[in-house]
Amino acid sequence: MTRLQVFLGVLSASLVLALGIEYDLYVGEPSSLEEPAARDIFGKWKRQHNKEYESDEEHEKRFQVFHDNMQYISAYNSRVKSHKLGLNSLADNSHEEYQATRLGHKPDETLQNKCEELPFAVKDVPEMVDWRKQNAVTSVKDQGSCGGCWAFSAVAAVEGIEAIYTGKTPVSLSPQEVIDCDSDNHGCNGGVQAWAYLWIMKNGGITTEDRYPFKEDTESCSTDKLADHVAQIDGCGVVPPDNETAFKLAVAQQPISVAVAAKQKAFQLYVSGVFDGDCDQFVDHGVTAVGYGTQGGQGYWLIKNSWNEHWGENGYMKIAMGVDAQEPGGKCAILSQPSYPVKHGNKPPSHFPPSPPQHIQCDMYSQCDSTQCCACTVSYPGLCVEYTCYESSDSRCHSGFDAAHRAI
After folding, report:
1. Active-site residues: which are they?
2. 377 is in which domain, residue-wise?
3. What is the pTM of this model?
């Protein structure tokens, strides 16, 4: 590489710093992978994600991991077009660290013994469902280094069913209460969503996250808060495994807890698009299916994750629909263990308050309404330095890489 190429790489990274560009969506020009430019990008990324390290040695270790991930992302994105990887909030985690801290679902082959297989009575299944737009989904949470994804997944499903049956704006419920107090599961060392439902039933309900905040660790159960019930459920159900039709029917009715195979590096560094990458069928992570739709002709399941809003599409992921002989449980085994909370009674006839306004973030300083696209009007090789908004009904423009980098 010539000195001019290195200089241009550093200049590119310097523009990122000076202009405050959101650089977590993708890796730009090849020159940005060289160490001088990569260090500048790492500095910008640290400020963006409020990252601080305890020592110079730890800082250097994190940079080397970050740099390795940059190179992986660049190579991956050059050959895969359906989805993108990028410098999200987990970009300074090695793949081994990611697997050790972010995954926590324990496979359970006895779900049918704990929750009933209940049919959903629906005549017409919508072509597209997004429970966020029905105001039945709370903001994305962050499990941190606690392997309590199972609790976050179950709580998100309870938040959804509570909103649907009460007609009220959903209240953020407490994963920490379930992590601390459900002795059948293993706190931050993993668990199963169905057992979380059974604990909530046995306890008579669950309290709010404000009243029982998340601590990123398993602590002693705060028994004085156990009777502070804000939401209740009456049972739990399971969707027949490996049945895409039944799963679609279920998601059309309410948010559904699912387990997915998430150990692959592409899952860790995902930022946008319909994920159809390689997965095995061994589930190890709990998330919540909150909708489905189609993008670019490919059907997808919309999942809410618990790795904060700086991972994926503002905390969400689209996983490709479809099963084949190698993936009978669907992509990343999403169809293998779906479960959900049950609430008896009648839903209100008009059971949702107006949804809060949604925005699409173009970069740190620019955003558009959810019905618009971000369009780059001033660009530098590999970067966009100025955005404008334009109206579009094309859902592919509504978030992530396609939104931020589609030209008018």
Report:
1. 149, 285, 305
2. 359-405
3. 0.82
